[in-house]
Prior knowledge:
The structure holds two protein chains of two kinds. Chain A is an alpha/beta fold. Chain A has five helices and seven strands; from the N terminus they run αβαβββααβαββ. Chain A has helices at residues 2-18, 40-47, 69-79, 83-95, 108-117; strands at 25-30, 53-54, 57-58, 60-64, 103-105, 121-126, 136-140. The longest helix of chain A is centred in the N-terminal third of the chain and has 17 residues, at 2-18. Chain A is globular, with a radius of gyration of 19 Å. Chain A starts with a helix and ends with a strand. Chain B is mostly beta strands. Chain B is 9% helix and 55% strand. Chain B has four helices and 20 strands. In chain B, the strands form three sheets. A 16-stranded antiparallel beta barrel of chain B has the order 1-2-3-4-5-6-7-8-9-14-15-16-17-18-19-20. In chain B, strands 10-13 form a two-stranded antiparallel sheet. In chain B, strand 18 (361-375) and strand 19 form a beta hairpin. Chain B is globular, with a radius of gyration of 23 Å. Chain A binds chain B through residues 45, 50-53, 58-60, 84-85, 87-88, 91-92, 94-100, 103, 119-120, and chain B through 11, 13-14, 17, 19, 21, 23, 56, 58, 60, 62-64, 66, 68, 70, 89, 91, 93, 95, 97-98, 101, 103, 107-108, 116-117, 120, 122-123, 150, 152, 157, 373, 375-377, 419.
Amino acid sequence: MTNQRLMIISLMLILFISTPAQSELVIIGNSKTVFSELNARLISRIYTGRVIEIEGVYMMPVNSTQKTDLRNRFLEKYLSQDENEYSAYWTVRRFIGKGTPPKEFASVTDIITYVGETPGAIGYIDTDLTSIPNSVKIINQ
Amino acid sequence: MLPLAMLYHNNANAEISYDFSGFGTLGYAVSNTPSPYLQYIDNKGTFSKDSLIAGQLDIKFSPRLSATIQAKVAANNSQETGVEADITWAFLSYRPSNDWLFRIGELQVPGYLNSVNRDVGVTYNYARLPAETDSTSPIYHFTGAVISKTFNFDGSDFTVDLYTGKKTTDLRYYIGNDIAGAYNQGNSYNQVDIDLVGMSFSYNTPKHTFLAAMHRVKVKNQGGEEWLKEFGFTEIIPDSDIGYYNNDPSSGASVTNRFDLYIANIGADISLGNDLRLASELVYRETNDLNIGINGILGYVSLQKKIDKWTPYIFYSQIKTFNNDLKKHQRIDSNQIPSGIPNAGLINASQHVMADIYQAYDQFSIAIGTSYRFSPVSVIKAEIMFIEVDDSSSLFDVSSQYESNDYSTTIFSLSYSFAF
Lengths: 141, 420
């Protein structure tokens, strides 16, 4: 009986521990950036090219490559757009001479590396996918 | 000129990035009449009106400083046949802050809903922009500068654009009849120098756009050629209407080699909800320096409904020369002297040519079409357009042997547009 109880408790613990943590999308910025937080509206305007500078810092936003779940969740949460709407927006903006879309990276590691090395850079990652190094800081979640 | 070295120095740590993109359209159009519409579209069918391919290079020196070069290959609108490579953008862009943008170089005329992106078929759903409005300006790009100031509000912004520049281009006319020693039937081109200045205002929300603009276009003919400022009239039988219009100064004609054109326009692109959009533009065009038929009002209204990947649309578009000028055109075009008078055949033929030079626009079109988007950068479009010309329309090349007023045309268009 005791063994059975132990087995049930052990199974529950294994199930609890092995359940994936809820992935959380966070916005990261270069750790030397003067501001500690950006609100969602500013993030939206940065990723649509309407804001290029905040408190004297020139912003360098980066995107995850197209068709990733991470990017889709970012667009939905911060821009209230889907991939088609966002691509269409930048197609118009590019060809009316108002700039080019943010640089894209295929992996979260590359995003973190770029943001950590580039003053003014911001990007987005899933917190459960990687640990956050000292070179970047979370500026919105 | 901007102190480039200083601008770049402020961002010395930023890397230079290059971004190449492009777009194109393969478009076919055919009408049911032999008289070409917009230079190319007739009953033989053509790929020349709507097809083009373009490449664009964006160079970002820093977040503030960038350069853009765009080159386009399309049918040559300044010649009867052939293709032309054209630099449609080539500018340096300096954005010192979120609100200010300075651009200098080869730029596109701002101030209309689609004037800046008119070549980029994937950015709108029409098979072709409504020609009555799209033909407003004698040029679509110029060498000069644009200064933009944006005022940001919660969820919207208001932008003021000021622009000025120059362009040398060929203005095209169609002469519908041969006049021995004077005019040949067919296309005629005047090379002109154009100076333009303008101001536009636009208010944008995520769902709506409203705009208004004013433009002044100074046109000067090169090579000493001149336009008729006033047409002369020679009476054959004194104190009667029997006579003919001409360019003889002794008959009251006067000429000029320059004129100023004033254009004012308003427009809106509004979401009505349920994926329904209403767009409309209205343009007022006038010159006080020439007594010809380019003075008038033009515009369109369109309705689009997005249904998944389909966007069916309908638009009504119209261009109309002011009534007094239209009546003058009618008088010239219909003027005939009795056949018994010496040289009556030549004189009567010359009246059609005089009318072609005068120009007149009195047409409306109704188009029904749809686009189907494979993706945001890949779209196929089909459209049927019905055009009714009441008096005359210089958007058609009508030979004098055909009836030149009160006619209609149907045009079918099919195109595929892409961008990358």
